[in-house]
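Subject: two folds for Thursday's group meeting

Dear M.,

Sorry for the delay on this. The cluster queue was jammed most of the week, so I only got both jobs back this morning. I'm pasting them in the order they finished. Each block is the input sequence followed by the predicted structure tokens. Could you check whether the formatting survives your parser before we put anything on slides? The first protein is the one we discussed after the seminar.
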Amino acid sequence: QVQLVESGGGLVQPGGSLRLSCAASGSISSIYSMGWYRQAPGKSRELVARITSAGSTYYVDSVEGRFTISRDNAKNTVYLQMNSLKPEDTARYYCNVHVVTEDSTSLRSWGQGTQVTVSS
């Protein structure tokens, strides 16, 4: 019912920047929140950043001040601007959205993930 298309991952040197995008489409009436999780090999998935429909944001401590989450409500798209990247930011990043569908169902959807590798 809801499709997510992610883009923007890649290989970057320490200190570099990347911007991730995630566009949601499908049977969407409204979006409660949009966010990014990440999972590194051998580690559990963690919430990196989230933004609500009201514009409130949350960041995990390790990215505070380096990452910025934003959204374009008209395009149902969320962005994650990642600056001053560190090797420990290397992970697969997943988009997650919490929506209300057109048949009034509350639904959480995951993207396929995009790889971010920070290495010299």
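Second protein, same layout:
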Amino acid sequence: QVHLVQSGGGSVQAGDSLTLSCSVNGRTDDFGEMDWLRQAPGSGDDFVARYTWAEGNIFYADSVKGRFTVSRDDAKNTVNLQMNDLRPEDTAVYYCAVRRDHSFSYDYRGQGTQVTVSS
């Protein structure tokens, strides 16, 4: 059984930085991609970034491109989301989620972590 455990987040001022981490407990050999998603109050999932597990390719939503950076730490079996120059519109609950190879929906999702950015 695979578990995604998130850490990081919090309340900051506009322009500040935060790092979110998603630690993977369990086997990863069938991982297709890990996405970072966010949910603002009253909204559904909003795509933030994608890390393709085997290839290591990274994609970003236009809204975060140039400000957010995804990285993988194999030693800790963790994927990090470094968020710089945060804006009030980045306020949301952030999730990491994994889609396995050949899967059409997310198979695993972290517990979510709140990010609040004040102007």
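Two things I noticed about the second structure. The CA atoms of residues 67 and 108 lie 26 Å apart. The mean pLDDT is 96.

Cheers,
T.
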